[in-house]
Amino acid sequence: MKILTQNFKNKIISILLGLDGRVTFSDYVWKDVRIQPEYWSKRLVFIYRLGRINLYYSKKNSFRKKIWRKIYLHLNIKVVEGKLNSHVPASAYIGQGTKFFHPYNVIINSHSYIGGNSVLRHNVTIGNLGKGSQDSPRIEYGASFGSGSALIGPIHIGHHSKIGSNAVVTKSFPDNAVIVGIPGKNIRKD
Predict the structure, then answer these.
(1) How far apart are CA 186 and CA 115, in angstroms?
(2) If DSSP codes are grouped into helix, strand and coil, which group holds residue 11?
(3) Comma-separated ranges of CATH 2.160.10.10 domains in the chain
């Protein structure tokens, strides 16, 4: 009976949001919201996922898509940019299971890729080199970011890497790297 009611809820939400059937709201949004460690993390992830659904999984040119886009933009300006002083655009890819601990002052470039099950802390910056460049970092599955860390430019960070607090990373690193310092250096001894 519980499965039946869950399917019914998913169907109603899909109709309200104008989803095209590739994702379900409970799998794509609620699973990620539930794992977040704190109140504002839950809000940030909910708003990000709502924007991502609207951008990539809604039926094209529907009236509902336009309405939900306005709701997303309003929530993004009021909560994410206003309360949290963060910039997490819906066009950036953030994998399922990523957690935000203290999601204040988190800046993510719209062309960035962050693999699933990563951990971001406050004051993290993931961006490009500026001057019209769209080359942004690609961070693989299971990365952990210390507070104040910055990843800049067209770099690749391997699976399960750890970026220390206040590290500035401007070059690529392999899987399981432990990156600290300015500029970032891998201190992992194999």
Answers:
(1) 20
(2) helix
(3) 92-190
Place of tokens 């970026």: 163
Tokens at residue 14, please?
């899909």
Quick: pLDDT tens for 63-105: 777 888 888 899 999 999 999 999 999 999 999 999 999 899 9
Check: CB of residue 54 under 8 Å from CB of residue 90. Answer: yes
- How far is Cα 179 from Cα 33, in angstroms, rounded to an integer? 29
**The model's pTM:** 0.87
Question: Amino acid identity of 91?
Answer: S
DSSP 45-112: HHHHHHHHIIIIIBPTT-HHHHHHHHHHHHHIIIIIIIIS--B--TTSEE-TT-EESS-TT-EE-TT-
Spatial CB neighbours of 119, under 8 Å, sequence gap ≥ 6:
98, 99, 101, 143, 144, 145
Give the CATH number of domain 92-190. 2.160.10.10
Residue 46 has a CB neighbour count (10 Å cut-off) of 17
Torsional sign, CA 145, 30, 73, 54 = positive
Strand order in the sheet with 168-169: 107-108, 125-127, 150-152, 168-169
